[in-house]
Protein 1
Amino acid sequence: MQRKPFIQRRHFLQAGSVLALAPALARAELTVEISGLGNERIPIAITTFGGEGVLPKPISDVVRADLERTGLFRLVDTGDQPLADIARPDWNAWRGKGADVLLAGSVRQLANGGAEATFRLYDVVKQAEQKSAVLSFRAELGRNAGHWIADRVYEQLLGVPGVFSTQIAYVQKSGRHYMLQIAEYDGANPVSAFTDDEPIISPAWSPDGKRVAYVSFALKKPVIYLQTIATGNRQVVANFKGSNSAPAWSPDGRRLSIVLTKDGLSQIYLVNLDGSGLRRLMQTDGIDTEPCFSLDGKWLYFTSDRSGGPQIYRVSVDGGEAQRVTFDGSYNVSPHVSPDGKTLAYIGRNNGKFQLTVQDLSSQQTLILTDTTKDESPTFAPNGRLILYATEVGGRGVLSAVSVDGKIRYKPLQGNGDIREPAWGPLAV
Amino acid sequence: MNPAAMTREEPGKWGSLVLAVCIHGALALLLYYGVQWQTRPPEPVQVDLVRSLPPLPQPQVVRPPEPMPPPKPVPKEEPPPLKKPDIALPKAPEKPIKKEKPPVEPPKPVEKPQPKPDKVPPAEPKPQQRSAREIEADRQRLMLDLASDEARRKAQAQTNAKNKAELDSATTQINARARDAWIAAISQKVGSLLSTDIPFGSQQPVFIIELLPTGEVGAVHLQTRSGNKALDDAIERAIKKASPLPRPTRPEVFDRNLQFVFKPRTD
């Protein structure tokens, strides 16, 4: 009730400023063109949240770590003390510290044992609040609350969703054991969804993020399983003669594209989630594998050796003639299409190095993103800004990430043992 | 006034009248063209006033029907002498008879005033005895002089215009360079303050800013949205943070209103 007059006055001022500018608009002549953006990271001040000491993990620490890890933000020192009044920041003080943006918040404990966090995001330069929200959560999930707030801040300041609340799946080998791990986006707090002494490969998230399809050798042969994350229940999707591998979800989540050898060499099939409706897509004499749906679900990108060396092709889900997509180099495998459908990531061999490469699907321009030598299994972040991939460091498999333009490379994610086969889950709903 | 002439019988009255009318017509034509030639330059002209004409010899006047005695001079010298005297002395009651040529008609008073005395400037009496050829020669000379003067004036004007154009061009180039440098400095300063990796939307964002003479940024107006509010906000922050903007080296290129167009980096 108290804010209504303020909002009305602000609108009045905005209207006044537009009127004052009317003559200027009429005779603006000189045009300054600014091509592209600089490399300035967004200077953001994230204060300690008052009362967050009741949580196992301070929310402000989580938010700072999330945003700083992106490489897009520069943290401004705020000291240890929270703001006395998060609704009334001292603009000049924060401007003097060099902050463009200020995030302030507070936490209070609820009677039911839960907690409630309030945050306000300010544009210090414009001296205006940009966003605010109140979030209730269980105290032990304070880290998740921090990710959630970081997502809001990221989206507000960059215009694309944050991925701090998403999860990744990967396969970790520890000794003789293979574990299908589900972890936070940065590899923290992994949980084993499935463990076996036989290899596990090719995890793939369902579009709703509730299930994972993967290949297990538990039956001494590659078989495709479908597992629900929350319950741990799993079912066999494809256990045909020979190899069953490389599951890929259709965008509508109603079927899988899989690779079978039941008819000879590896060939691509479509199958419903319950294993019914199996349909072979093409009749070729070569090896077709690693299918990946396009954004609209009408195309399948896949690897084939039909032209000699392995290259990436695409074919309509209704079958027909395949079209070659990659032409640079003699070895290009493991296609993965970006969430916006505009970019293809794959592993290309360059001078004996297997490196993560991206190709603009409209211009055909390619860009090698890494300087490592044994990259594998690229997977896009659901906001399309990052690519997670497996590589080797010191003979051990690690997961690393890089921005799609290759400008920001991230440290290998947390995790012990030999880590491979990453798959980035969808945006949290 | 000669009383003898007034009382004498007029032998060729009607013939003289017709002749007078013809001569006056010719005189009118000559005036029409001749006056135009001579009104322009203030060239001195030779004028013979005919106010005190001597009395005409009688015998010559008695035989008007015989055009024999002076067959030649009559047609040649008729037009010029008749032109001016009638005008210069419009109200002279005496016979306005030419001085050296024998009159073709008997001297008699002109009954009515000449039809166009007011068409000729009275201050410029026309020469009586100049031939058409001379007048034409004078006119040609005058025209040549005029053309020469005009050509000189044109040449001078062209030279002046050329010098001015060269000066203007040099100034324009200097100003253009100064303006380009100014724009580049502004672009560099604002662009360097923009954050990396903010995706462009569907359009190139355009801002209109009002600039104070000190270079400080006044009002900032978002004219065209990019389609990504985060980018629009970041640009507005960068513009305000860049205040004061660089000032031009030449004050005359300063523009109070600037349009900022942001384009995605192409590298």
Protein 2
Amino acid sequence: MVTTDNDTTENNGQDRQVRISKQRILLASTILLVILGIIGVLAYSPAASTISTPSPLLGKVAPNIAGNSITNGSYVSLQNYRGKFVILNFFASWCTPCFDESPALITFAYNHRKTNNVAILGIVFSDTSSRASNFLKSVGATWNAINDKSGSIAIKYGVSEPPETFLISPSGIVLAKFIGPVTLAGLNEAIGRYQ
Amino acid sequence: MDVNIVLGQAGIYLSLIASLIAIASLVKEIINKRSSKDWAFSQLNKIIKIWMPLILIGVALSVVSMEHALLSHDFRIAYVAQNNAIQTPLLYTIAGLWSALAGSILLWLFILSIYVFLFYIKFRRSNSPVIIYAQLINLIIVIFFLFLVAAPANPFIHTVGAIPADGAGPNPLLQDNPLVAIHPVLLYFGLVGFTIPFSVTLGRLFAKQSDVSWQKTTRFWMILPWSCLSLGIIMGAWWSYEVLGWGGFWAWDPVENAALMPWLTATAAIHSGVATEERRILKTWTISLILVTFTLTILGTYLTRSGVVESVHAFSDSNIGIYLLVAIAAIVLVSLFAMTFLAPMISEKDKAYLIQGEVSKSAAFVLNNVLFLAIALCVFVGTVYPIIIEHFSKTISIGPPYYDTLSAPFALVLLILIAVAPVLSYNPIKLDALGNKLLYPALAAAAVSVLLVLSGFSNPVDIITYSFATMGIVVAVIQLIKNFKRSKGSIIGTFLGRKGGSMIAHIGILILAISIMSAVTLGQRGDLNLYKGQSMKFDNIRFTFLSLSTKNNPQDTVTNAKILINNNGPYDPAITIFPNQTQGIGTPGIYSTPFRDVYITLSELPSGSSSQSIVLGIVVQPFIFWIWTGGFIIFAGGILSLIPTLTKNRVRKKTADKTELTELSKIN
């Protein structure tokens, strides 16, 4: 049965004393705790794009890369970076997300300048050396970069669209792959996981 | 200095100042009232009359500046450089405002200010404390979004370094179909609109107003966005069907779910709101549903805009996630406080209502709510659980089978309910009386099931769906005929108002149910390997491959096949490759009739230039056309149901004028 409300006198605006039952408060607090718990966990969720994407290279020795740096002309080889974490960053001057991620890379390099245990190596993807080095200068990057003129490095690493970034361990093992612009939080988390 | 940046930023700060002043005057009024118990409305109105329009003007200035920047390809603005290119067609240049994070938050803010302004205009002469609280809450929400646009998601940031000669252009997926221009805007008009019922409801609680007439006020502001959201969701499904090239229309993508969850709870709230309005029952329940709906819209924004989930829609690389989480926490905190300490003051009497095993309108509303919430809970768990569990164990992936399996039983019972509930009244009805009322609809349902069984259908779920959907349509049409008789043949009385509009919305939903069911269960998929000039049959449909062409445009490279479908066409499925993007975008060719859609995609291009053979992906599905039509009917139903709230008073006034005139003539 539905009992209809016969009380036609509404109390608008008048404060009336209502006892708030303990169960009500208990229920509300439980809901609050659960929701705040969910929010708390969400707050520490890394963005989906910073979580490493699967790659057949993960856990394997990174294919070697060697060539002349477009930054200062010196000869650079990935093998010479053993002993340091290497952030291998495929980029191009025409790629806007590459531009977007550069502050994260620069801050990351700056934060690790004292420990000197991290190096960044850029790989130019489908671009000219002069444009790429101008791009690096304009964003304030000082790390070495190699121009992958033939595209063979991109093929070895399975890179199809910059920016793509790999994290390589001091012993030369590929630890993680990021597709899309990296974030400082993503880099820190990835390196924190293996240090 | 860039004029677009200056004006855009100025607009935001103008609104920010205007809303701060308006908030200050409202707060001052509320504090004064606390001590003197006397609201100085005229005083307050004089002040906020100036500032409320300025909020909208400021935001509009910002939006106009951004549109102007997009149209003039002003690559000095980083947002424009990233989301526009010189060759971007006009429509997608305009839609650039909502093709990435910062711009879409600006659009959200713009629509929010429109709603808040309309609400202010409608109630500017009201002297209820509920309205004062509601305006205050509206403005606090406006301030929050102004803050997002001013700081973490500012679209008016100057390009760093050299100004590019050309921009990157929008995401290729977003420049393929005009629905991109409509669907997000409709969705935003839906999601953002739930702000108003939220603030009115909280306003009611803070002002301790138990008067159910506030439910009527809320209804208008609830159904308007609900209608937009319904159509927006369906238009989104249409876009994904037309663009994504897999022949489906719903993927249980977290972002689709983000829009679906508030739709489910809003639908529940609209139904229980009817019971509150007509019988003063389920009052607290309706209030909580409205609060939950708004919380879910902000959660949806978080899921979509924070990059926490991987999806077609998600704009990753953003830092607004944490602000949205703080906002959700604040909303939950305030809502729970209001429900715990304030709701009992306006809803004591609710406890007296008990609905026991009976067949009545109230029981139907309760069942409706339980079912809608059950589906909403399934969707919520499926969307949020994988993100949570990632912290404690392996990444898990929840896909369509979970949602389909879990929500199907509830949806099926809802379908039976929608076929029966409209004939019920608040007084419990005896089963034989119910039988009389449902005689013709039940006969129609029986006829449909017999026909289905005779034509070879054996799955009970299919048969139940089609027959109860038919029954529901017959029930709705009978209700419309009743309206027609009751209003003595007036079209307005038949189709407008809650009694008319709701039945039209029901018909839309049922058409949707039938067409989705048939598309999903009766669809055929396959591949054909065709040489140039060759003709082959699939599902009794003849496909003829006429030619293949590749065109290099400045903005993209398009490979196009010309295909005849049963000698209609040619239809041209294509693969488009954009420069700066290596991802190729497939565009389907669709031969659509009200009875069936033939959907073809180029799934493989010739490997060498000499070879002229393609692989054609084919999807044949019946009644797809009616899914989109159903969406428009639901939208129309929602809007129609709102109209009499405007006209009824006018009609009453007219008759009053008439009687006054006759009285006068009598005297004379």
